[in-house]
């Protein structure tokens, strides 16, 4: 029997320089944004069922507060940390 192994072909693997963060958004800023926006959506849904437009506007304001609070928390350092660029290490 002949040897069927190919000694000349080796595949080169190109891997990223280092792995990105793996928390997938499990941060205080992300959870705060999610919970407050969800509360606002529940208020809007209740307002739609009750046919009360003014309550829907309150729910929309709660949603806006949630988005702003999440961004502020991210800027204060409670969000996901950024990976430094390739040339800045």
Indicate the topology.
Layout (H helix, E strand, L loop, with lengths): L27 H23 L2 H26 L11
Keywords: Membrane, Transmembrane, Transmembrane helix
Explain what you see:
The chain is mainly α and 89 residues long. It has a domain at 28-79. Helices cover 55% and strands 0% of the residues. It has two helices and no strands. It has helices at residues 28-50, 53-78. α1 packs antiparallel against α2. The longest helix has 26 residues, at 53-78. The protein is elongated, with a radius of gyration of 25 Å. The mean pLDDT is 84.
Fraction of residues in β-strands: under 5%
Average pLDDT over all residues: 84
Overall geometry comes to: elongated
Low-confidence stretches: none
Kindly state the number of beta strands.
0
Order of helices and strands: HH
Q: If you compute it from the alpha carbons, what radius of gyration comes out, rounded to the nearest whole angstrom?
A: 25 Å
**SS-based class:** mainly alpha
Number of helices in the DSSP assignment: 2
Task: Determine the fraction of residues in helical runs and give it as a percent range.
Answer: 55-70%
Largest sheet: none
- Termini Cα gap: 54 Å
Biased composition (Polar residues): 1-12
Keywords: Membrane, Transmembrane, Transmembrane helix
Transmembrane segments: 29-48, 54-73
Region (Disordered): 1-26
In short:
This protein has 89 residues and is mainly alpha-helical. 55% of the residues lie in helices and 0% in strands.
Keywords:
single chain, 89 residues, mainly alpha, elongated
């Amino acid at each position: 029997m002949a040897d069927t192994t190919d000694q000349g072909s080796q595949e080169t693997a190109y891997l990223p320089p280092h792995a990105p963060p793996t928390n997938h958004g499990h941060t205080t800023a992300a959870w705060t944004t999610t919970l407050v926006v969800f509360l606002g959506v529940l208020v809007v849904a209740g307002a739609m069922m009750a046919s009360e437009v003014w309550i829907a506007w309150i729910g929309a304001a709660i949603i806006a507060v949630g988005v702003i609070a999440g961004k502020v928390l991210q800027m204060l350092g409670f969000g996901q940390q950024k990976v430094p660029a390739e040339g800045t290490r």
